[in-house]
Automatic annotation (TrEMBL), chains A, B:
Its cofactor is pyridoxal 5'-phosphate. The modification N6-(pyridoxal phosphate)lysine is found at residue 301. This is Cysteine sulfinic acid decarboxylase. The lineage of its organism: Eukaryota, Metazoa, Ecdysozoa, Arthropoda, Crustacea. GO terms for molecular function: carboxy-lyase activity; pyridoxal phosphate binding. GO terms for biological process: carboxylic acid metabolic process. The keyword Cell cycle does not apply. It comes from Artemia franciscana. PANTHER family: BLACK, ISOFORM A, GLUTAMATE DECARBOXYLASE-RELATED. Keywords: Decarboxylase, Lyase, Pyridoxal phosphate. Belongs to the group II decarboxylase family.
Amino acid sequence: MIKMFKSQPNKHKHETFFREILDQLLLGAVFDGIDRSAPVLRWKNPDELSKLISLELPKKPQTLEEVKEFLLNVVHYSVKTGHPHFVNQLFSSLDPFGLIGQIVTDTLNPSVYTYEVAPVFTLLEMELLKEMRSIIGWEKGDGVFCPGGSFANFYGISCARYRFSPDIKEEGLSGRKLVLFTSVDAHYSVKKGTFLLGIGTKNLVLIRTDKQGRMDPTDLEMRIKESIDKDLEPFAVVATAGTTVLGAFDPILPIANICSKYRLWLHVDAAWGGGALMSQKHRWLLRGVARADSITWNPHKLLAAPQQCSVFLTKHESILQDSNSASATYLFQKDKFYDTKWDVGDKYLQCGRRADVLKLWTMWIGKGSEGLEEHVNTLFDVAKATVDEIKSRPENFKLVLTTPEFVNVCFWYIPKRLQGQENSLDYNENLHKIAPKIKERMIKEGTMMVTYQPLGTRPNFFRLVYQNSELTCHDATFFLDEIDRLGRDL
Amino acid sequence: MIKMFKSQPNKHKHETFFREILDQLLLGAVFDGIDRSAPVLRWKNPDELSKLISLELPKKPQTLEEVKEFLLNVVHYSVKTGHPHFVNQLFSSLDPFGLIGQIVTDTLNPSVYTYEVAPVFTLLEMELLKEMRSIIGWEKGDGVFCPGGSFANFYGISCARYRFSPDIKEEGLSGRKLVLFTSVDAHYSVKKGTFLLGIGTKNLVLIRTDKQGRMDPTDLEMRIKESIDKDLEPFAVVATAGTTVLGAFDPILPIANICSKYRLWLHVDAAWGGGALMSQKHRWLLRGVARADSITWNPHKLLAAPQQCSVFLTKHESILQDSNSASATYLFQKDKFYDTKWDVGDKYLQCGRRADVLKLWTMWIGKGSEGLEEHVNTLFDVAKATVDEIKSRPENFKLVLTTPEFVNVCFWYIPKRLQGQENSLDYNENLHKIAPKIKERMIKEGTMMVTYQPLGTRPNFFRLVYQNSELTCHDATFFLDEIDRLGRDL
Ligand SMILES: Cc1ncc(COP(=O)(O)O)c(C=O)c1O
Ligand SMILES: Cc1ncc(COP(=O)(O)O)c(C=O)c1O
């Protein structure tokens, strides 16, 4: 008898189990389950869902049949983030090449720290990181796949700090007065980085943005000067290429000039916008990006790789090694028989590290860089079509930015009751309540998922964000019609 | 015609592609490919491998057939970390339940930050974290799945720092003199944490260990007093439950008493040893663990969950929220229609976050907690059998610890030439060179993978580490025989 506790698959025992679940998965989560005709989600509140999904962790093993039932139930009640009508976040889609690359990775279950344990993944990582650097415009440098863009931003700030003052690695921040700059519209991970790295939020200076949401270089220079006057230590600027909400691109060139002038590290958070570099037509949005010292780029966002696929890149060849090495001899033995430059793990902050490269690699060979370009261009086209459609329906819809630069389409839905009331005192307050109400109905019906948020003094507005190149202008019409249907009576 | 660039699977186009690859994967990486009769790896040095694996990122798409060939090649040349004779790292195995849970997760591709996007995964996480806390002995608290135990240790140090002085979140470390304590045998991530968090390595005090590799509480107290005398600010101790190399368990109770006396946060790094808590027979190794303020526990190590499955747990209910919250309104809107306590993301340092819960959950229901216990007990039994076998072969093998506490079995192999030379001056120097040579032969033959390392003044020794409950005492004999075969003539 095969014992069920054993941590090794057994063909005799598990083959049918695997095959049956894989069959159902292909149906329920890869093909039919994310067809436009299927629901995006089947909403249940936490109490209801707790009853529908068995939340018991039993003492005795369940049968294979029970385990299978449980997993299919998980599929049934989970949000289908691969559904074309899931446009709620900066990730979506279920790329076929990405998915199979991910599944192959899982069955090999590697950890990328030494060549001996992950030879293929090590080579793929090095090559892909090199290619991404060359797309940025760097001939040399280094990089690492990270568990998310937030983490990649932490690397950026940490490398900048090391460059500014290498002795901080040993001495710590006691007695230092480091100051970091980013825009008010930057991603919140920059702020979290200042907690984590011991810099402190009050030493994060938030720079003004223009109407499109782009960092104002004049304000930046003024604030840098101010902090120098106060005897503080400015050390880095985090610019954003593709802000989270508005999709704005900070003007990298003037910012880079300021960074050169004051000898500050320039980190460009292109977590969201980095994918635009794949397109000859749209890469101008990041012009000057090669001037950056380091970059965050999440292929799991615009390029629609599976979660997570996030990259930190720098043009400084030895900074990751210098700033992060701890030379643990139990793992990075120097008396190995092969050249230990291939053991990359000592350079990184993680020890065990999942291989996030194969999914992107598989997408790249399955589509070619031209296919990735076409993917990106398609997203811009659908965004443009959406903007045009919104403009053609001025009674109900109002754009937040009349000409968005990127694939974020932000707009207010104005139900009949509020039309023509723009000048009334409580207009904004009323408008602010519309999106959450529509969102509630949308989620409960499960027909699509679109997010909303306020920004600065702007009341709640919807944000469509495109990463799924399956989308067409018909989907754009669907999104607007559906919002109209759900919100008309509000 | 279906365009190949689209980020959406198409049944017509991709079904055969998926099925063929999955078939080959089951064969090559899940069943036959990790049978004892198959090689653990097919060694190629980086140059050779670069030719065998196509490292080209093409402009034009490859055919589905070519993509398939590439992926199967990746499988062929990758190390089979699920093979029973891969005992090189603190992770191994390919748990059947873990694997299928992971694959289901991938097809759903969630990010666990809001309930609306990941309802099922949110509930599963909450429940499993609660269960793990209750196994530790805590009635309340909080926790998070992390991208690795290193990251979990960073959370521990970060929470400790916040507790010590909440204003550091805003003010930063300027003007502070924080000091952290851990043992000389602690995992290197503690040191990396001091770089990252801005504390500085010189403010990490390394405490002496006894012969078994356990932290010496007397030395700890002395060093704490010393730093108080120097007007520094001791704030936390990181104890280890299961050290990386020797598998030692720091004595938590006396350490906890010292922490209480000096009001220090106690973080227990049980990344490796945490799994022993599942066993009634072996959980005494962590006695006193409920006294800790926080814990790192990697189910992907001893419990053999797929990479990565790492948990940070704390008994303090609001500390994650207090120390990490940035209240981003674009994601964590407070005007949602459901109770936003279910939107857990604001508490964490990451934004997008992979779901690492389902693989462990599936293992738990497939085996029951009793099965997990049997898994752990089996590993201890095989380790004990290995120790006994080593003792029975005293001419060739010498244990580093005569009675190891855990499933790390560390030993020297002594080839004929060195036998009886213990007193010669260059004995250690010669012995130091043996393990790397055997390792080279082992890797080139591909029959197994066992790691070696030096420790302190001890010359290189082998370390067998067990996480695969498929292993039996016959495998232990195989490991020793094989080392003997490979090293006899050295
Ligand atoms: C501009 C920007 N930077 C960084 C991030 C963080 O990326 P991740 O969610 O992978 O941590 C995001 C996430 O949306 C983002 O929009
Ligand atoms: C004791 C200990 N703590 C922490 C870690 C780090 O865990 P991870 O590799 O998941 O970052 C390890 C890794 O081996 C370890 O042995």
